[in-house]
Amino acid sequence: MKRDLTLVRLLMAIGIIGILAALLIPNTLSVIQKSKLNSNKKEIMLIAANVEDYIPNFAISERDKNSLDNYLENIKTEILSLSPGESLKELKIQTAFVEEKLDEVRTPEKWVKAASPDLVLSPLENYQLRLARLEAKIELFAEERITKWDVAYIDIFILGGLGAIIVLLKFLFQISPKKYATSKPIKKVKKNTNDD
Predict the structure, then answer these.
(1) 130-145 burial, b if ≥16 CB within 10 A, otherwise e?
(2) C-alpha 167: how far from its chain's center?
(3) pLDDT tens, 36-81?
(4) pTM reported for the whole predicted model
């Protein structure tokens, strides 16, 4: 029986590759979304911790210091209470919430006004808050933003999908290396050297 490439086999291969892609792509996207969510959470926690180190040195009233501390503690509690969502949609919603909080924490004027509306910080204190943000950025760059397990998880899915595609194509088309190897030796053509 001759095994040729037929339209049915080609459509079967495309269908199975499509099914594998439909299974692999959402998992890969959710891993990427989780790593983004975790890195944003980590940045918020680092900024809050660095800012808390500067607050005791501010020349403001004790009530204002406490309101700043409480505000940062509330943000940290909100962030820590988030458990990663199960679906990609939940992860996107959580990431949007965390990005909003991150934007708030990155801009000292926003969260200082939110913590204590009548509080005005001196230029030196504003610079210290910006310095705390920069210190957090440096710490983040020093660490890995995506963990090794996330990368390994993505690699396993990609390699597994490629392996499944190769096995599928080999099975469908019965591809064997022997079929394409030349089994007959090449004949050498002798030239006539008769000078008649």
Answers:
(1) eebbebbeeeeeeeee
(2) 29
(3) 888 888 888 888 888 888 888 888 888 888 888 888 888 888 888 8
(4) 0.60
Say whether pLDDT at 159 is over 60. Answer: yes
The two three-digit tokens of residue 126, written as one number: 């504003």
pLDDT for 156 beyond 60: yes
Residue 95 has which token pair? 């990431």
CB-count burial class (<10 Å; 0-12, 13-18, 19+) for 51: buried
Cβ atoms within 10 A of the Cβ of 162, count?
Answer: 12
CB atoms near residue 76 (< 10 Å)? 18
The residue assigned the tokens 């509330």 is 74
**Residue 196's CB: how many other CB atoms inside 10 A?**
3
